[in-house]
């Protein structure tokens, strides 16, 4: 299908559809790879990040990340806007959509790649950490999906919701449990938003090394992946791009493993 036939991928018009990708704080992350791939496919891309989260994580704040991402997207023909968003704040989703609509227009695809992820297990997870994980990974997901649905007015069948998940729960209790709850919310949207023609899917990308993996984990995951390598952010971005396209519109209500076979 060429560009003129595909309303999802116009070539140069400023009526490019708008995708909102959450969790785009670092240029090496999955969110940034998704943003780049969607820009290549004809989308304008709004993105969120929360710098204080990166600051308290082991990788720290990446200097110049937002400027790098913005330049990458502009080079691919996309208009873009970045919004700092503390997703523990229940008012944040509405403010994000307000800003994106003001700067770029209505959102047609919502890609949820944000997370709170701090390792802890059954015995050492604190109530504060548990609550923070569920506020960001579960409650914010619901509020973002709800905001998207309440404002959605694009052509029937063109709307997309995609979320990234994980099944890593052992010694990662609040993160894994929250991702499980997030899955159910997003998959429910495939039914509950059918009147809008919005599809909703979840992707489990498996272990993707974006700078957080110790050498031992990297070696273990490589050894146990049938294809003999780790997943890359762009691997996930390709699938997100397909699901956002017209050709991916018949896939709905699915949890898709895109992990090189490590889960087989």
Structure, described:
This protein is globular. The chain has a seven-stranded parallel beta sheet, sandwiched between helices. The chain has helices spanning 30-40, 51-56, 65-75, 92-103, 127-151, 173-192, 215-224, 233-244, and strands at 18-22, 44-49, 80-84, 107-112, 159-164, 198-204, 255-257. It is an alpha/beta fold. It has one domain: 3-Layer(aba) Sandwich (Rossmann fold). The protein contains eight helices and seven strands; from the N terminus they run βαβααβαβαβαβααβ. Residues 1-13 have low confidence and may be disordered. The protein starts with 17 loop residues before the first strand and ends in a 7-residue tail after the last strand. Helix 5 (127-151) links the parallel strand 4 and strand 5. Helix 1 (30-40) packs across helix 8, helix 4 packs across helix 5 (127-151) and helix 5 (127-151) runs parallel beside helix 6.
Name a few traits of the molecule.
264 residues, alpha/beta, Rossmann fold, 8 helices, 7 strands, disordered N terminus
By CATH, the architecture is named 3-Layer(aba) Sandwich
Strand adjacency order, main sheet:
3-2-1-4-5-6-7
Distance between the termini: 33 Å
Q: How many domains make up the coordinates?
A: 1
Helix/strand/pairing class, anyone?
alpha/beta
Q: Count of helical segments?
A: 8
CA-based shape: globular
How helix-rich are the residues, as a percent range? 40-55%
Reading the helices and strands in chain order gives EHEHHEHEHEHEHHE
So what's the CATH class? Alpha Beta
Largest sheet: 7 strands, parallel
Q: How many runs of DSSP E, i.e. beta strands?
A: 7
- Give the oligomer, counting copies of the same chain as homo and different chains as hetero: single chain
CATH level 3 topology: Rossmann fold
Mean pLDDT: 93
Give the strand content.
5-15%
User: What is the CATH superfamily classification?
Assistant: NAD(P)-binding Rossmann-like Domain
Low confidence ranges: 1-13
